[in-house]
Design a protein that fits this description.
Rossmann fold; 2 domains; two-stranded antiparallel sheet; single chain; 9 strands; Helicase, Ruva Protein, domain 3; elongated
Length: 261
C-alpha cells in the first residue's frame, strides 16, 4: 500500500531500506527493550523494530496509516498500535507502568521537532534514549556549542537535560516526498538528574531565553531587569568577560552560574 503523504501532517516517508537498516543498527536494540516509535508511517521500520525488541508501541496520528501498520505488521504479537498525537500521550501512565526504561525512535514531523523533544525530556526518568530523524540544521542547533552560529536557547535546554549527538546524515532523496533540505539521525540521552540543588530551573531558562531573544545585544543589555546589576558585574569579573560579551559566547555552565543563588 502506498498512501499519498499528507503535507498538513508533515509526512515524509523514509523509502531507503539501507537507511532503515542503519537506523535500527544505530539504536542498539536488545531483546528486552521496550520501544516507542513516533510516526510509524507505513510500518517498514516498525516491522524491523518489532523483530528485535520485546515490545513496540507504534504511535501514529494518521488513522489511515495506523490501519496500514496494523495490517502490514499483523504477525507481530509484541506490537501495539497507538493512533494518537504523541504530544498528548502520557508515557508514564500509558506505557511506563512496568517500570521498564523505554527507547524512543522516530522519523518525526519537522514542524513539531522542538515540542516533541521538550515533551520527551519531561520523562527523563523513564526514557533511556531518544533516536530521531530531524532536519540537518535543526540537529546542528541541538548539538551546537558556545561560540557557534547555531548555538542558542534550544542548545542550552537540551544540553542541560541530556547528551545530544548527531549519529549520521541522511540525504533528502531518501524520503518521499523529498524535503527541501537534508536530515540527520540524532541521539539524545537524557540525564536522569540534570539539575543542581541550588539552581532555579525556571529562572535559568528565563535568563537563557532573554539572552538569546535579543542576541544582537550585549549580555549586559539583554539581561537588564532579569539579572540584577550586582550579579552581572560579579559574573563579568569571575569569568573575565568584558561588558561587550554576547550570549552566544557563554557556556551553559556560565548561564547556570547566573541563575545560582
Amino acid at each position: 500500500m502506498h498512501p499519498k503523504p499528507k503535507k498538513r501532517l508533515g509526512q515524509n516517508f523514509l523509502i531507503d531500506a539501507n537507511i532503515r537498516r542503519k537506523i535500527v543498527s544505530a539504536c542498539q536494540i536488545h531483546p528486552s527493550d521496550v520501544l516507542v516509535e513516533i510516526g510509524a508511517g507505513r510500518g517498514e521500520l516498525t516491522r524491523m523494530l518489532a523483530a528485535q525488541a520485546a515490545k513496540v508501541y507504534a504511535v501514529e496520528l494518521d488513522p489511515a496509516l495506523a490501519a496500514i501498520v496494523k495490517e502490514e505488521c499483523k504477525e507481530a504479537s509484541n506490537l501495539v498500535i497507538v493512533n494518537r498525537d504523541v504530544l498528548k500521550l502520557d508515557l508514564k501512565k500509558e506505557i511506563g507502568g512496568s517500570g521498564t526504561k523505554i527507547k524512543v525512535i522516530g522519523n518525526i514531523p519537522y514542524y513539531i521537532s522542538t515540542p516533541i523533544i521538550e515533551n520527551l525530556l519531561q520523562y527523563r526518568d523513564l526514557v533511556s534514549d531518544i533516536y530521531i530523524t530531524v532536519q540537518k540544521e535543526f540537529g546542528r542547533r541541538v548539538c551546537s556549542a558556545a561560540g557557534s552560529k547555531e548555538y542558542g536557547s534550544l542548545s542550552c535546554f537540551v544540553r542541560y537535560h541530556a547528551e545530544p549527538k548527531i549519529m549520521f546524515y541522511i540525504t533528502r532523496s531518501c524520503f518521499r516526498p523529498a524535503p527541501k533540505i537534508d536530515s540527520c539521525f540524532l541521539h539524545i540521552r537524557p540525564r536522569p538528574y540534570p539539575g543542581q540543588a541550588h539552581i532555579d530551573e525556571r529562572l535559568l531558562f528565563k535568563i537563557i531565553r532573554a539572552a538569546f531573544n535579543q542576541r544582537r545585544k550585549t549580555l549586559r543589555n539583554s539581561l537588564a531587569g532579569v539579572v540584577c546589576r550586582q550579579k552581572l558585574e560579579h559574573f563579568f569579573r569571575a569569568f573575565r568577560h568584558d561588558h561587550g560579551v554576547r550570549p552566544e559566547q557563554l557556556s551553559l555552565e556560565e548561564f547556570i552560574y547566573l541563575a545560582s543563588s
